[in-house]
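I am writing to request your help with a piece of structural work I have in hand. I am sending you one protein, given as its amino acid sequence and as whole-number tokens for its backbone shapes. Kindly check, if you would, that the fold set down in the tokens agrees with what the sequence suggests. You will find the record immediately after this paragraph:
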Amino acid sequence: MAQEQVVTPWEVSGSGAIDYDKLISQFGCEKLEQRLIDRVVKLTGKRAHTFLRRGVFFAHRDFEKVLDSYEKGEKFYLYTGRGPSSEALHLGHLIPFMFTKYLQDAFKVPLVIQLTDDEKCMWKNLSVEETKRLARENAKDIIACGFDISRTFIFSDFQYVGRGFYENMITIAKSVTFNQVKGIFGFDGESHIGKIFFPAVQAAPSFPTSFPHLFGTKSKIKCLIPCAIDQDPYFRMTRDVAPRLGYQKPALIESRFFPALQGESGKMSASDTNSAIYVKDTQKEIKKKIANYALSGGGDTKELQRKNGANLKVDIPFKYLTFFLDDDEELERIRDEYGSGRMLTGEIKNILSDVLWKMVEQHQQARLAVTEEMVDAFMAPREMPFMFEK
């Protein structure tokens, strides 16, 4: 009997590849249609991001309403986040930040990035001081993605929560019953009260009054949240309470998971270093991981692969290229050559190693330039007078 797929903010598992159509139906979100991608291109004058063209971001909630408002000249802001539980990010962690940077650059809008050091302290066996330290380390990797400091506020919950943010947390918490969070998140009698309360913390950045230094008392500014689909439960709850509190429902644009090297049964695991490529990995480590651990859809022998071609539905090197090889024509060439058997597994793994190392090397160089003073500057609560300027 096949194992039922499980997708929550803390667990992604199943007996095979995630059924994303089933998730759309289960969660009640909508498929991201090509007409919306075409509207993004028309409104911004920018080419659609690789993640849009390839269906990496595949689902949404009210994204069309955000585009309608933007077309009318109304403002919106972006919100995404990271739970700091490791020294460095892996490539799966980079997906929402790469895409959020594209959205920020294309629409010229402000961005808030939440570092949930409090969450990791509660869910992991980590101290307050350790999670605060990891938050700053992760902030360096995030800054290295190239965000515009004049439009970007990065904050850790331990350092920032208070004032309007805390007021919103409390009003959200008062509006959600234990039975509701038990139904949404699966909490039970053994869940400590910090876990039960935490959804209000992740919900609060969806409301502009949580950032009085940016938006003052304006409560009607729309929020768009780029995130992986496993974060959807938080924002289903948020969208439920928003109208009752006088706020706009946050909109979401949601991505598939970046698969582990061993196969597409979920997402990469920070606890298994051989399941992931990290932004701190060397060229040699990347090549070795891909050679030894990346699941191949090729044949058991060269002869069988030449005869039958590769199974691209399970082949991890090809899947990784669909995320990170920007050249559409080259990707189609590889699809044809590898799928037909004219290209072998070793060849595509070498191509992937080169593509990933080029990206990781650029990230490492950018991160080396991030100083402690830059982290302080991005994380300082401050006015951003030019955050909506084109």
